[in-house]
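Appendix B. Chain record.
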Amino acid sequence: MRADLIGIFMCAFLAGGLLTFLGGVIKHFNAGNMINLFDDKKHDKDKVSRVVGRNFLFTGLSTILIAVISIFINEVYYNYVMMMQLVLIIVGLMATFYQFNKYCKK
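Structure tokens predicted for this chain:
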């Protein structure tokens, strides 16, 4: 099944919008403790909020930016754009959890 522009935007604004919203809330309200892996004894809440919020914001906004750029791309490449968004989200989440475990210790 071939991807179309509506599908690209739906995926981008659902996944990217959710990550952007969560990243903004976590970073702005210092809500690092809402992360499921957060433990008060092991992790610093300020570092968790900064790292996870920044990474979620970056991943979400990048996904939306790829969707906006796809307006100017030929229809032949829509499947590649969808794959690029999926890979970006997966790599962004993997980088977030890696940095969470490496840099957010007390």
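Further analysis of this model is presented in Appendix C.
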